[in-house]
Amino acid sequence: MRLLTLEGVDFSGRIEGAPDVTAVLEHGDGRIERTRVPFVVGTDGAGSAVRAQLGGGFTGSTYESAFALVDARIEGFLPPDQALYYQSSAGALVIVALPGGVFRFFSSLPAGEKVSVERMQKIVDERGPRGVRLTEPVWVSEFRIHARHATEFQLGRVFIAGDAAHVHSPAGGQGLNTGIQDAHNLAWKIAAVLHGQAPSALLLTYGPERAAVARRVVRDTDIQTRGWMVQGPAAVAARDIAFRLAERSGLFGLYAPVMAGRRLAYPATRATQVPSGRGPCRLRSKLPGGLVVGAVFPRELALPHGIAGPGEQPAGWSLVVTCAGDAVAWRSQTRALAAGWPQVRTVDLSAGSARASTGCGQQGYYLVRPDGHIAAHGHSGDLDRLHAELTWWLGPVAGAAR
């Protein structure tokens, strides 16, 4: 089946009041189907037909060098729980363990050469570990790497995600994580709108949030890939020294959460998302490693309180109330305010126990989205800000106008 066209797309970009979209599909037997749906999500790869319907660009570049990929079983030993990177003046070699005793060998190819198991074996012998032989090939492929992202992730009721929105080098293995996070970001927002738990304007946050992440991932993987491909003795020596220093100093360990997407944050766009005044939280948010609005709520606090982690039902919205002492009045105030939005559950934490993970020891709150990111943070004098944020994300309380 393939998409022929989309009908009813509102090119003004609005969602509220815009009609549903009709997808015109062609089946393998030539039959034409017209399907009317409230939303279209294109996850149809780098050659996305849905992206083409949006009319936006796919900006970036394609690397000149070809790359070889061989999945194979081996004779010898390779660690089953590590990704191995080998750098040499001839190029890079990456080895990643896959399930079932299979290993993926990935390498740049010299100009004019074609991929084969024999050629990959020679690359392993020249650049990689000793005593490893490729025995049973499962997959052999040659491809080119692109560094591209869409200029538009959304137009009205039509969205794109995954490779349809961004393609880049496999450096760091960030492609799968980024695509899944696209889907996660969009899924809970569409669900909230369809169930009447949020205004349709919530969906307009998908494009800006995920486009910013895609630009960063494409940039970071491009830097890593160009580091693999440097040529000339001086450039190779400088790269190797930098990699050794990063490994010995522990910088690679610090970068792992970045590659996993655990350090990404969606920047605050409204004053009501952050505490009032110029207290320590404002200063700390500007320091490296400081917890900021838009970042993921610390996992060591989220898991014990059901804000994140496995469960039969998604966590939904959480209002984490940090309390100093008994704070009976503060708990009552925040619970009374949040009661107008039944989809928000309230979690109490002591301000002291939260300080080590959040950096904030003041009495206050964290409004946490269903995807685990912090939507807003404030202190005990910021209940008006909390009300404004709950209204923005989830719509006004029924009867509030009266």
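The above is record 1. Record 2 follows with the same two-line structure.
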Amino acid sequence: MKEEIQEDGSFKRELGLLDGTMLVVGSMIGSGIFIVSADIARNVGSAGWLILIWVLTAIITVIAAVSYGELSAMFPKAGGQYVYLKEAYNKLIAFLYGWSLFAVIQTGTIAAVGVAFSKFAAYLYEPFSNENVLYRAGSFELNAAQLVSIVTIVLLTYINSRGVKDSKVLQTVLTIIKILSLFGLIIFGFTLAAKAEVWNANWTNAWQTRSFSLDTMTWSPISGSLLLSGISAAMVGSLFSSDAWAGVTFIAGEIKNPQRNVGLSLFLGTFIVSIIYILANLMYVSVLPLDEITTAKSDRVAVVAAQYIFGSAGTIIIAVMIMISTFACNNGLIMAGARVYYTMAKDGLFFKKAANLNASDVPGWALWAQGIWASALCLTGQYGALLDFVVIIVMIFYILTIYGIFILRRKMPNAERPYKAFGYPVLPALYIILASALCIGLLRYKFETCGWGVLIMLVGIPVYYFTKEKEDTQS
């Protein structure tokens, strides 16, 4: 059950369980946990609802991850989710996923995480700020923050193009530093800065539902459809912060004993991150009054908390933590994404050159294509909007992939399943129901951004048939 499943005969299986788990953790934890709790608190209005949103997100994420274990054990190949969708449905659905991944999901996330890195680098060195405009041409502006984010993307793409060994060592070391520093922040928060009066005040009206306006700086009670709208908006941030766990399935062709280690990496990684996220938010509400969480400057809740914990040095500590966090996050995203484009190219559904491995046995051309497009997205200034509709596309494909487990149970009843989806059929069905309800809520209440996300995905349909026609003509 080892080298014989290396179906393409070219990827080297050099990643173990620790590497897979660190890829999941490192890709999931970016800048979100340091920022998005402010927006969640503004949308739902109380400590109880803030924690509940993170607990719900944890449940949804872990259920999805353990459900993917069955698919990763059945198809231990490079390409992961793309392969599962192709096997369960057809090439069109798989292509739409790969198209969305390249157009927005992976590259848009890489761009946004790169910009988050540069924003906090500017804390340490002011000239890196986005206010430092280096070049103007009409309405186009190139600022220092964009340049820093592009440099980090190019550097990480280069490291990954040198082979999986260099990138796996970087990923594991940075992710361990990230986990330890986050746990350090949580422990110091509880021991040095937590106050009983702050905790008690935040939990006095723990389930009061209201929304906060930054324009008027006032609270308004919400219920009914307004509450559903608030929950949908709140979960965009928590789900985005908890995404990118599926990246380990993309590199299954390079993982030792993938039938066991991919599924286990998914569970361990998502579980570790979920615990960290819930504990971090419990720390926030033990250190900061809710009003300070909702009005944190630029939503930097962790910065405000760190100032309570460490005094004036708090800002520098958090800036360094977020720079390490975002750097490791982008390394994992860059490593994983290119493997999907490689697999698509093997199927004739992406640029032919993406199907080649370089001298280091990694898809170098696909890595650089991804890096160039992600860098271009840094220049557009539209990464904030990209994040909003990344979530809707991601959720749609998670739903389709997990429903694919039901399809494959019927379609391939006798196929070898070294691992079966935990809690099948109840937990996968529960995920589909919860995620579908959230997608409906997003389309109803955030159509102006989520609608664009769905449109980008659907544009892939004519692109697929155009690509297919060319392929048929050539053959």
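The radius of gyration is 22 Å.
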